[in-house]
């Protein structure tokens, strides 16, 4: 059976997360339902990562084995037709080898967390960012983020429900950028690693917001990391600011590079 990789974007608000669950809508179920309109015998699809309820994606990757050969463009068009009206879209399709796996072949994952500093309620970005109504010091946040770089035991920033075998991960990039966003200031937190723990990035974002507000210092981030204790973490940021933006592979299946 030919195997295909799919790059998928979605608005996470209507869904309980990526993973299929009983009696609640999921992104996985939406994509599988669309694919079964083309291939009724389809098995479950596999994704590069499981995003939580309310979390968005612009670069999720999944794979599926189909009963017939498709040209990537026609398959993308057909799946998108059957995904309507769900806020999910396939933005690229590629034929891959039978041993290629969306999760296990991945060597990098990139996430973005958006914070909008603004007093007035969000209109166009409602549900797409974390609104913070008080000023934030982005330079202090950037210094706090630098304390997280490298290989560490990230128990402090790990959900108690995390199923990863080890809390040790290597954080390759932790970047804080600001940009004007109309009457707001947008603070964008970007994180790159091979893999992440459950709630790790939302825990980072909540902790860095404390630094930006002045309630914590960058040194407090170092102390929290060294504590290896979930109780030492700052608050967990809400899901609507988080986006899975990219999954990297030794060779990108969508570009061949």
UniProtKB/TrEMBL annotation:
Entry EC number(s): 5.4.99.12
GO MF term list: RNA binding; tRNA pseudouridine(38-40) synthase activity
Binding site for substrate: 111
Pfam families for this protein: PseudoU_synth_1
CDD domains: PseudoU_synth_EcTruA (cd02570)
Domain Pseudouridine synthase I TruA alpha/beta: 9-104, 145-250
Active site annotation, chain numbering: 52
Any GO BP: tRNA pseudouridine synthesis
Keyword annotations: Isomerase, tRNA processing
Enzyme class name: isomerase
Reaction equation(s) it catalyzes: uridine(38/39/40) in tRNA = pseudouridine(38/39/40) in tRNA
Domain of life: Bacteria
InterPro entries the record matches: PsdUridine_synth_cat_dom_sf, PsdUridine_synth_TruA, PsdUridine_synth_TruA_a/b_dom, PsdUridine_synth_TruA_C, TruA/RsuA/RluB/E/F_N
Record's subunit section: Homodimer.
Function: Formation of pseudouridine at positions 38, 39 and 40 in the anticodon stem and loop of transfer RNAs.
Family indicated by similarity: Belongs to the tRNA pseudouridine synthase TruA family.
Protein name, as recorded: tRNA pseudouridine synthase A
Lineage of producing organism: Bacteria, Pseudomonadati, Pseudomonadota, Alphaproteobacteria, Rhodobacterales
